[in-house]
């Protein structure tokens, strides 16, 4: 019964976070910004105002597929946000430019997260092999290796939080100072970005919960073998 509740939680929490993002984004997608600037124009204005003339802004396919590519120095905005003039699109575009600003200023957490990407990707995929062997055979040493490898992925999730919160903070400051949105619209933009942040918080919470569950299983196996 406890395991059923656990699995329901790790499934429901991310789903609820995603629903919150989509509903909030959809709500403020119907509200045009005072400036009537498209997401592409918003991104370009913030970049230029901060001297990042070489960073490109391009359209990309997909729904809420917006992101900043630090390798090619490109802000990629989904079609709706690239051409749209809504508060939601403005917030998302400014957020992605926030990452470009972090990159240009060598923001420590962004650099740390970039360095963790290959490690977290490799260890997270490999960890479950050891975890499954440990669980199926009750081999605590194998399970421990899996836990250690999985910890890299959990660390990545935690480092992501300050990176995303900081990018949102930069975004809100920029669109307000550049008069892209009104004071009221800035509040709406914050709601959009806060909802998006919930997905990262949910992912971190689920990762920690899974890690703690495995640690408890590992402890139980060791206690049983003593």
Automatic annotation (TrEMBL):
<dbReference type="Pfam" id="PF04298">
    <property type="entry name" value="Zn_peptidase_2"/>
</dbReference>
<feature type="transmembrane region" description="Helical">
    <location>
        <begin position="197"/>
        <end position="221"/>
    </location>
</feature>
<feature type="transmembrane region" description="Helical">
    <location>
        <begin position="116"/>
        <end position="136"/>
    </location>
</feature>
<keyword id="KW-1133">Transmembrane helix</keyword>
<feature type="transmembrane region" description="Helical">
    <location>
        <begin position="143"/>
        <end position="163"/>
    </location>
</feature>
<protein>
    <submittedName>
        <fullName>Zinc metallopeptidase</fullName>
    </submittedName>
</protein>
<dbReference type="InterPro" id="IPR007395">
    <property type="entry name" value="Zn_peptidase_2"/>
</dbReference>
<keyword id="KW-0472">Membrane</keyword>
<keyword id="KW-0812">Transmembrane</keyword>
């Amino acid at each position: 019964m406890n395991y059923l509740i656990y699995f329901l939680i790790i499934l429901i929490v991310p789903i609820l976070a995603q629903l919150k993002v989509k509903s909030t984004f959809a709500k403020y997608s119907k509200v045009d910004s005072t400036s009537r600037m498209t997401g592409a124009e918003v991104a370009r204005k913030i970049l230029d105002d901060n001297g990042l003339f070489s960073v490109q802004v391009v359209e990309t396919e997909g729904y809420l597929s917006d992101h900043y590519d630090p390798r090619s120095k490109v802000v990629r905005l989904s079609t709706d946000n690239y051409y749209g003039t809504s508060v939601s699109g403005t917030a998302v575009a400014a957020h992605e430019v926030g990452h470009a600003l972090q990159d240009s200023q060598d923001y420590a957490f962004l650099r740390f997260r970039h360095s963790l990407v290959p490690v977290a990707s490799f260890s997270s995929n490999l960890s479950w092999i050891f975890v499954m062997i440990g669980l199926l055979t009750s081999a605590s040493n194998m399970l421990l290796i899996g836990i250690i490898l999985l910890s890299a992925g959990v660390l990545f999730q935690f480092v992501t939080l300050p990176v995303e919160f900081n990018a949102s903070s930069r975004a809100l400051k920029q669109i307000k100072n550049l008069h892209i949105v009104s004071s009221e619209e800035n509040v709406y933009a914050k709601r959009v970005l806060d909802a998006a942040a919930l997905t990262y918080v949910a992912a971190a919470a689920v990762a920690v919960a899974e890690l703690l569950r495995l640690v408890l299983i590992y402890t139980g196996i060791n206690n049983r073998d003593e």
